[in-house]
């Protein structure tokens, strides 16, 4: 049975890609497309309800999975509305702070919710294998990261970079907030042993590159993931939507649950 989906931010780059990919997938039905207030005109897909009010749209599409790549504030509001109407939701928004993540987790008690700052199967597989690499290399290896994205990206460091860095810190038994270093400038002295540097580059139309460095005595190991197309993220989100439609509320699901 095909899964019904509602796409938020339908006229944006990611929203448009999600709709077109879902329309080509026989296991998905695009039953709704939502834009911000006053901007829903021009959305015209057969069998799809266009709206600028999610609160009014969801009662017309019971059980449909909302797919959201918008903004942190919008995603938190969406989660509350989805919980109110009993619609599962997949969130791919980046830049959520801890309070916003906690707010979404509260909504997840009432409806199946999924959040991942990166929908790539490759990145989420990397999150599974990095702890073993950290353990095998041991404490003599300093860990750093460089992330690169297009010039239009609003958050820094990227949500993916933060997730990867938190994974590294956890593998060492560190609290990430205690060891993070997102900027270096001036005479900073020697690098502390317990530190993870994450540096940001922005420019052009780079979809997303993340390189993790392990600097050891006499050698260096580099682990790089490069996203070649946003289709990687859209494909992962739609895969998650099919999976989430069969889940129960009670926890905020992640890509690790799907993979």
Model description:
The chain has 259 residues and is α/β, with parallel strands linked by helices. The chain folds into 2 domains: 3-119 and 231-258, Rossmann fold (3-Layer(aba) Sandwich), CATH 3.40.50; 121-227, 2-Layer Sandwich (Dihydrodipicolinate Reductase, domain 2). It has helices spanning 13-23, 54-57, 72-85, 98-107, 121-137, 159-172, 176-179, 231-244, 255-258; strands at residues 3-8, 28-34, 49-51, 65-68, 89-91, 113-115, 142-149, 180-181, 196-202, 208-216, 219-227, 252-253. The protein has a 7-stranded parallel β-sheet, sandwiched between helices. It has a 5-stranded mixed β-sheet with strand order 8-9-7-10-11. β4 (65-68), α3 (72-85) and β5 (89-91) form a beta-alpha-beta unit.
Number of contiguous helices: 9
Strand fraction equals 15-25%
Which strand order do you get reading across the main beta sheet? 3-2-1-4-5-6-12
Number of domains: 2
Kindly report the average pLDDT value: 94
**Gyration radius, rounded:** 20 Å
**Could you name the CATH class of the largest domain?**
Alpha Beta
Overall 3D shape: elongated
Helix and strand sequence: EHEEHEHEHEHEHHEEEEHEH
CATH topology of the largest domain: Rossmann fold
Structural class: alpha/beta
Low-confidence runs:
none
Largest sheet: 7 strands, parallel
CATH superfamily of the largest domain: NAD(P)-binding Rossmann-like Domain
